[in-house]
Specification:
The complex is a heterotrimer of chains A (150), B (358) and C (171). Chain A is 21% helix and 27% strand. Chain A is α/β, with parallel strands linked by helices and 150 residues long. In chain A, the strands form 2 sheets. A 5-stranded mixed sheet of chain A has the order 1-2-5-4-3. Chain A starts with a helix and ends in a 34-residue tail after the last strand. The relative contact order of chain A is 0.14. Helices cover 49% and strands 14% of the residues of chain B. In chain B, the strands form 3 sheets. Chain B has a 3-stranded antiparallel sheet. In chain B, strands 6-7-8 form a 3-stranded antiparallel sheet. In chain B, strands 4-5 form a two-stranded antiparallel sheet. Chain B has a single domain, classed as Cytochrome-c3 Hydrogenase, chain B (Orthogonal Bundle). Chain C has 6 helices and 6 strands. In chain C, helix 2 packs antiparallel against helix 6 and helix 3 crosses helix 6. The chains are: A alpha/beta (150), B alpha+beta (358), C alpha/beta (171). Chains in contact: A-B, A-C, B-C.
């Protein structure tokens, strides 16, 4: 299925999902994540592979990115959620796709996004007693020596 | 019991926390991050070209494939088309590196199973031949930094085509040797057959990719299913396993060496003339709200998610490492098996800490 | 007895004319033994580990210099080859491994990362800037990213030279 066809199907089912200009992504409200994810996983779209979860620090908000693929149907889609810095809680997808477990732990470790109902939400790359969220733009650390730019 | 981070069979600095009942593994918790070099943070302070050497050090056994994945992601942001010659050169070096990488996977797996040193030394002997070719092309043995945005750094030097052809001729019988030495060896079979069986649904749910996914019977290879470069011009097969045990995963790698040799042979015969590099400026300023591109690495699908804000530096660069997802499934597979089988399962998945921890 | 003059330690051995035996000091004999059978620890951290294994494999054959017996346990090792980037999470582990090695012990820092952090010096919060900064004394530095196996062999020979020339009181 082509990306625009998938987007049309999702928009017909969930009117509050918005298409993002300039990318093949779709922006959804965070409250409906679990509901939409369940719909995406079941036929006809059958996204059986949660490929990647990542986040981008947009300074005043954090953008969560989910990249989904379907091995059977051979198509993919990008979901985006915008979180405000005051409320960094979002539902965990680990009950739907098992790969979400590690990927969500990584996002928690590096950005501080809390995934609700996650089976084992601990830091993964940094030591367990690490302070701060390193990939935020305002992160600083005594060991971090900034290279002079060109 | 703790296993690692310094342990000969964990392939790097991986630490496993094991809960045991005698020899039986009740629970296995991997602790990763012992090689966390924060490459994603570094990327935000490097220009697009400056970041290429860092991709070498992700999956340091298959540096060419990493270079390729990164430069193609940036080219996708820039809508840049590289020359035919560059595409062929990229295919040749990527496939040669796939062979080198699978040789290490096979050698270390055999060593983990107790075939001490001999298969590993055989594999390293063949790998040195590949490395010699790369040494001649780009002057380095392990971290090549060969791809550039818009092409490759150097054109092929004189006489390298013959050398690669000789290598293909040399390598074919060697793969048959491995078959004879290992694949149907009774001890090897007893140690790896029906150990760590990964069912199809579980593999997809854990987002396992690459040879490990194909060993479970899923015919999925980006080179065929979402062809990039000129992969659609070559004839090659996708080997698929039957029941997804450790032996199948090993067998996939042996078969893929054969298929890669086929691709290299066809590509070197069809290598077109022309410029290997498209001229692009030194400072690139692509802009995108999120570009994702994935390529088929020896260990699975390597993806780069790049956000550019129109400056010379990426705003955010995420590396989707195949080993990261492959590692996640292992604790589930080793539950209830013996410690010795745990080593076997780990060896067969061929995870590499450099790209897990980044 | 012409063969004896060819071995590296010939300077340390005094031949008695006409006799079937020779004299040496226990010190030089011990040093000769120490230098010629260094057992390294399999301690690959990152990329350099593969060049270390390549040095141990058939083409470069580190066994020719008596250092091919890679041991997994620090208690059986004489030399720790720090091959790769040292990350903050790994610091304590490296210190402990070094402490577990029996005296006399030597350290080779292989590659730029183990020397100073290398290309991971800037902009990173999780890389330790060199083996020295952990308080581990390094005997030989081998630069390169990664160093070729030949460089590792040169570094090993430098270490052997150092061992042969050191005063006994040092260790």
């Amino acid at each position: 299925m082509r990306t625009d066809e998938i987007l049309a199907i999702i928009k017909a089912e969930f009117p509050d999902a918005k298409e993002e200009t300039g990318s093949d992504g779709i922006v959804i409200p965070k409250e409906r994540l679990l509901e939409i994810a369940r719909y995406l996983k079941s036929p006809p779209l059958a996204f059986d592979n949660l490929h990647c979860i990542t986040a981008v620090d947009r300074k005043e908000k954090i953008e969560l990115v989910y990249i989904l693929y379907s091995i059977g149907e051979r198509h993919g889609i990008t979901l985006k959620i915008y979180l405000t810095l005051e409320d960094l809680n979002v539902a965990s997808l680990s009950e739907l796709w098992k790969s979400a477990n590690y990927l969500e732990r990584e996002v928690y470790d590096l950005f501080g996004v809390v995934f609700l109902n996650h089976p084992d939400l601990r830091r993964i790359l940094n030591p367990y007693d690490w302070k701060g969220y390193p990939l935020r733009k305002d992160y600083s650390h005594p060991q971090l020596v900034v290279k002079p730019r060109l | 019991m703790n296993m690692g981070p310094q342990h000969p069979s964990t392939h790097g600095v991986l630490s496993l926390e094991l809960r045991l009942d005698g020899e039986i593994v009740k629970e296995c918790t991997p602790h990763i991050g012992y090689l966390h070099r924060s490459i994603e943070k570094i990327a935000e302070n490097r220009t697009y070209t400056q970041f290429i050497p860092y991709t070498d050090r992700l999956d340091y056994v298959a540096s060419m494939n990493n270079n390729l994945g990164y430069v193609m992601a940036v080219e996708k942001m820039l809508n840049l088309e590289v020359s035919q010659r560059a595409q062929y050169i990229r295919v040749i070096v990527a496939e040669l590196n796939r062979i080198a990488s699978h040789l290490i996977a096979v050698g270390t797996f055999a060593q983990d199973l107790g075939a001490f040193a001999t298969p590993l030394f055989y594999c390293f002997r063949e790998r040195e031949k590949v490395i010699d070719i790369f040494d001649q092309i780009c002057g380095n043995r392990l971290t090549y930094n060969y791809m550039r945005i818009g092409g490759v750094q150097f054109d092929f030097p004189e006489g390298i085509s013959e050398k690669i052809k000789d290598f293909v001729k040399y390598m074919r019988p060697k793969v048959d040797d491995y078959d004879q030495l290992l694949t149907h060896n009774a001890i090897f079979l007893a140690r790896s057959k029906n150990i760590g069986v990964l069912p199809k649904e579980l593999a997809i749910s854990y987002s396992v990719t690459g040879p490990n996914l194909r060993a479970s019977g899923v015919k999925w290879d980006l080179r065929k299913d979402e062809p990039y470069l000129v992969y659609d011009k070559f004839e090659f097969d996708i080997p698929v396993g039957e029941n997804g045990d450790s032996w199948d995963r090993y067998k996939m790698r042996i078969e893929e060496i054969r298929q890669s040799l086929r691709i290299v042979e066809q590509a070197i015969d069809a290598l077109p003339q022309g410029e290997p590099t498209v001229k692009v400026g030194r400072i690139l300023k692509p802009s995108s709200s999120g570009t994702y591109f994935r390529t088929e690495n020896p260990r699975g699908e390597l993806g780069f998610y790049i956000v550019g804000d129109g400056s010379a530096y990426p705003y955010r660069l995420k590396i989707r490492a195949p080993s990261f997802s492959n590692l996640a499934v292992i604790p589930e597979l080793v539950k209830g098996s013996k410690i010795a089988d745990l080593v076997c399962v780990f060896g067969s998945f061929d995870v590499l800490m450099g790209e897990i921890d980044r | 007895m012409a063969v004896i003059e060819k071995i590296p330690a010939a300077k340390l051995i005094h031949k008695i004319p006409g006799g079937g035996f020779f004299l040496t000091t226990t010190e030089s004999l011990l040093k000769w033994g120490k230098a010629s059978s260094l057992w390294p620890m399999t301690f690959g951290l990152a990329c350099c580990a593969f060049e270390m294994i390549a040095a141990g494999a058939s083409r470069f054959d580190i066994d020719r210099f008596g250092a091919g017996v890679f041991r997994a346990s620090p208690r059986q090792c004489d030399v720790m080859i720090v091959a790769g980037t040292i990350c903050v999470k790994m610091n304590d582990c490296i210190r402990r491994l070094y402490a577990q090695m029996p005296e006399p012990k030597y350290v080779i820092a292989m590659g730029n990362c183990a020397i100073s952090g290398g290309i991971f010096y800037y902009d990173t919060y999780s890389v330790t800037k060199g083996t020295d900064s952990l308080g581990i004394p390094v005997d030989v530095f081998i630069p390169g990213c990664p160093p070729r196996p030949e460089n590792l062999l040169v570094g090993l020979m430098k270490l052997q030279e150092k061992i042969r020339n050191e005063k006994n009181a040092d260790r």
